[in-house]
TrEMBL record:
<keyword id="KW-1133">Transmembrane helix</keyword>
<keyword id="KW-0460">Magnesium</keyword>
<dbReference type="Pfam" id="PF03372">
    <property type="entry name" value="Exo_endo_phos"/>
</dbReference>
<dbReference type="GO" id="GO:0046872">
    <property type="term" value="F:metal ion binding"/>
</dbReference>
<dbReference type="InterPro" id="IPR036691">
    <property type="entry name" value="Endo/exonu/phosph_ase_sf"/>
</dbReference>
<keyword id="KW-0443">Lipid metabolism</keyword>
<dbReference type="GO" id="GO:0004767">
    <property type="term" value="F:sphingomyelin phosphodiesterase activity"/>
</dbReference>
<dbReference type="GO" id="GO:0016020">
    <property type="term" value="C:membrane"/>
</dbReference>
<feature type="transmembrane region" description="Helical">
    <location>
        <begin position="365"/>
        <end position="384"/>
    </location>
</feature>
<protein>
    <submittedName>
        <fullName>Inositol phosphophingolipids phospholipase C</fullName>
    </submittedName>
</protein>
<keyword id="KW-0472">Membrane</keyword>
<comment type="pathway">
    <text>Sphingolipid metabolism.</text>
</comment>
<keyword id="KW-0746">Sphingolipid metabolism</keyword>
<keyword id="KW-0812">Transmembrane</keyword>
<keyword id="KW-0378">Hydrolase</keyword>
<comment type="similarity">
    <text>Belongs to the neutral sphingomyelinase family.</text>
</comment>
<dbReference type="InterPro" id="IPR038772">
    <property type="entry name" value="Sph/SMPD2-like"/>
</dbReference>
């Protein structure tokens, strides 16, 4: 067990009970494979069934004795973390926006998608905060940016948590299914504000020169983890234009960053050690042994983070630009901030989603009012039913109208106000952030 590196693996297990195909066989296959690996940290997403978590935990407990299954929302977060190093703290941050309750098919609203984390005690690095997350799924890559507004809010909330962990003096490792391709706005928010390095991009600094890659080359050269033709669960499903063009998507990430050291530690030690991604690869691309199906609808991603001697002195928070603290910029070590383009695009997308949400809420409340009128008419008309056989039909129709009206009231009034308020909070937060950057001369 080398102490000069940390090996991390992330996998979306697609483990929703009754819905995910071949779940039990796949979970057992995943557990058997993970037991053969030598990773120090494993982050799993969509591990919804606690018994599945227990099975995997028991299979790898000799290698990774510390673990945490995270609870959130009505159906759980689906997130679990396993560690070789002792866990000294845990946290769960449910995302404020996660789809609409009426979108039963998507299901995101019913689960507790969140940013979860453990704090581990590392013999060389000290405290390391390891994040695991699964961002809002719907929205794709095409069309107006406001289609992905909920995912933007997820990414912003995640970025703040990761940045805060670094400012508390901890190393940060983040893994998960971000449901975003590398060039997307959510990844830009995370990269720019949280200053997280993408392990795949660091370990593969030279972009491949392949113009028309094969399905396997798309995996090995571009890091495709989802919607690959080589995955048995995505091979036959309809895919978007991006996935068809690039033979899949890179949606799963392992990221990391160095800590920001508190000012009282300046001069008290040598430059702190640094993390550097030296290897990053896609794993579990073959079918489950002896089965015709894949381990999941995603492939796994692994990264090796080497621990190297530090080359930079600790950063003094008092001399570093910190937007919320109002300190001046230190030219030698400025904190990462959002670019003007990312900030402007995010604010426009959130504002457009806010307007769309208000319009939808008005329509739903109008439907609610119409349902009330129809119900009153049914009450009055029930006295003049011409035939007894109409009664059951009449009752079923009344129940349907009552259900529709109740749903529209909840959607239009309760959820609609909740979504609008959450969006407005983030929009105003971005406005304050933008004004502070402009005042300090950082944003031009």
């Amino acid at each position: 067990m080398a102490e000069d590196q940390i090996r991390v693996l992330s996998l979306n297990c697609w483990g929703l009970k009754y819905v995910a195909k071949n779940r039990t066989e796949r979970i057992h296959g995943i557990a058997n494979e993970l037991a053969k690996f030598d990773h120090d940290i494993i982050a799993l997403q969509e591990i919804w069934v606690f018994a599945d978590y227990e099975y995997i935990r028991d299979s790898i407990v000799k290698r990774l004795p510390y673990s945490k299954f995270f609870y959130s929302g009505a159906l759980g977060s689906g997130l679990a973390l396993f560690s070789r190093f002792p866990i000294i703290g845990t946290s769960v941050h449910p995302y404020s926006l996660n789809g609409a309750p009426i979108d039963v098919g998507g299901g995101d609203w019913f689960v507790g998608k969140a940013a979860v984390s453990i704090i581990i005690s590392h013999p060389v690095l000290g405290q390391v905060q390891v994040f695991n997350t699964h961002l809002y799924a719907k929205g794709g890559e095409d069309g107006p940016e406001y289609n992905r507004a909920h995912r933007l809010v997820n990414a912003w909330e995640f970025s703040k948590l990761a940045r805060q962990a670094a400012e508390l003096g901890r190393y940060v490792i983040a893994a998960g299914d971000f449901n975003s391709i590398p060039s997307s706005l959510p990844i830009a928010l995370i990269r720019e504000y949280a200053d997280l390095a993408d392990a795949w991009a660091v370990a593969h600094p030279t972009p491949p020169s392949i113009s028309s890659p094969s399905a396997m080359e798309a995996i090995t050269q571009f890091g495709v983890t989802a919607d690959s033709p080589l995955n048995s669960y995505s091979a036959g499903k309809p895919l978007g234009p991006y996935a068809r063009k690039f033979l899949g998507k890179r949606l799963d990430y392992i990221m990391y960053r160095q800590p920001v050291r508190p000012p009282q530690r300046l001069g008290a030690e040598d430059p702190p050690p640094e993390l550097l991604a030296t290897e990053c690869a896609v794993r579990l691309t073959d079918p489950v042994p002896g089965r015709p199906f894949s381990f999941s609808d995603h492939f796994a991603l692994e990264a090796t983070l080497e621990i190297r001697a530090g080359t930079r002195p600790p950063v003094d928070l008092a001399d570093t630009h910190n937007v919320w603290g109002g300190a001046p910029v230190a030219p030698s070590a400025p904190a990462s901030e959002l670019s003007a383009e990312s900030l402007s695009t995010a604010m426009q997308a959130l504002a457009a989603c806010y307007r769309f949400s208000r319009q939808r809420a008005r329509k739903e409340l109008t439907i609610f009012a119409l349902c009330i009128v129809v119900l009153l008419g049914l009450v009055v008309g029930s006295s003049w039913l011409p035939h007894a056989w109409i009664n059951p039909i009449f009752i079923l129709f009344t129940v349907f109208i009552a259900w529709l009206g109740t749903t529209m009231l909840y959607e239009g009034f309760l959820y609609g106000n909740w979504e609008c308020n959450a969006l407005m909070n983030v929009i105003e937060e971005f406005e304050i952030y933008k004004n502070t950057l402009e005042t300090q001369g950082v944003l031009h």
